[in-house]
Automatic annotation (TrEMBL):
<protein>
    <submittedName>
        <fullName>Uncharacterized protein</fullName>
    </submittedName>
</protein>
<dbReference type="InterPro" id="IPR009078">
    <property type="entry name" value="Ferritin-like_SF"/>
</dbReference>
<dbReference type="InterPro" id="IPR012348">
    <property type="entry name" value="RNR-like"/>
</dbReference>
Length: 311
């Protein structure tokens, strides 16, 4: 069994960071029941969706198709993370390295997993309200995606792989949250409110990802680095296959290809590529804001009215 033997340089400080991230989590969150579900979007909401996705009116159906595709897929990925974190926290119960002392790491990962499980719940509901029909994917590759994390790798290697994969998507959805907040600062639209509620939790996830990148991954052995990348790459490949399946499902349900002449999709693709590079080009991987070139920053500014993804 691969074990994590090199303690981070300052494990007391790392545990304190994790403790601080979650200290007010119960106050900065919203249970799915508290979202005030409006049901099917009305004309105003549909017009807003058209503007968020296409930047112009008249594209509500295509905008809904795009959101259903991306958010149904996100719910699957969030559910997977929750299950993977279940495996990791179970393994950490037997881990004797200093970062596992006490309950700070366990608490942070348990709360992270619980929040993602609730996100999977509210996006599951939201896409059905948007589509006005049930959304059933025959096979979401859940077993295959989980199997990547069921080997005898150390829980830290699994945590690194899962956080690298999650961090890319979490950074992209943060940009979309900022776009809706920019277009709708009073949160009058449900989509804005939903992404705002999601973002309260995601702000913590991103901070945990940064702790993993900055405090946990630098101490990996070469073998651990290699395995973290293998599991990360395997996750990315299966997620790409999952995305293809959702794309086909949306074509079947809406008769729409969400990738055609869709400016939000184009931005999503560009950002995903830059954020993936932040995970793969350097060791340890870098926070996305440190990897952003001028062109990407300009894109971010035009799309979401901000110069940074994360604080
Ligand atoms: Fe989430
Ligand atoms: Fe998250």
């Amino acid at each position: 069994m691969t074990t994590h033997t090199d303690a981070p340089a300052d494990h007391v400080g790392t545990r304190a960071r994790l403790r601080d991230i979650y200290a007010a989590a119960h106050e900065q969150t919203l249970h799915p029941n508290a979202l005030g579900w409006p049901g099917r979007p009305d004309e105003r909401e549909l017009d807003f969706i058209s503007h968020v996705v296409y930047g112009r009116p008249g594209m509500a159906r295509e905008g809904c198709a795009y959101l259903v595709k991306e958010l149904a897929q996100l719910a699957e990925i969030e559910r997977h993370l929750s299950a993977v974190f279940g495996i990791i926290t179970a393994q950490l119960g037997a881990d004797t390295s200093p970062i596992s002392d006490g309950y700070d790491l366990h608490h942070a990962l348990s709360c992270f997993a619980a929040e993602e499980y609730l996100h999977a719940d509210f996006f599951y509901r939201y896409v059905r309200e948007l589509a006005d029909t049930d959304i059933k994917l025959a096979d979401s590759l859940f077993s295959e995606r989980l199997a990547l994390y069921q080997g005898d790798d150390s829980p830290y290697v699994k945590l690194a792989a899962m956080c690298m994969a999650a961090y890319i998507g979490e950074s992209v959805i943060t940009v979309f949250e900022k776009r809706t907040a920019h277009l709708d600062p009073g949160r009058e639209h449900f989509l804005t409110k939903l992404l705002w509620a999601h973002g309260m939790d995601e702000a913590r996830h991103v901070q945990v990802d940064h702790v993993v990148l900055e405090c946990i991954m630098p101490s990996f052995s070469e073998a651990e680095q290699r395995r973290a990348f293998e599991i990360f790459s395997g996750t990315e490949e299966l997620n790409a296959e999952l995305a293809g399946r959702f794309k086909q499902l949306i074509v079947d349900v809406f008769g729409v290809d969400h990738t055609v002449d869709n400016p939000a999709w184009d931005v999503q693709q560009s950002l995903t590529s830059v954020f993936r590079q932040a995970m793969t080009v350097t060791w340890p991987p870098s926070p996305v804001d440190e990897r952003m070139d001028d062109e990407t920053r300009k894109l971010l500014h035009e799309f979401a009215g901000t110069d940074r993804v994360h604080p």
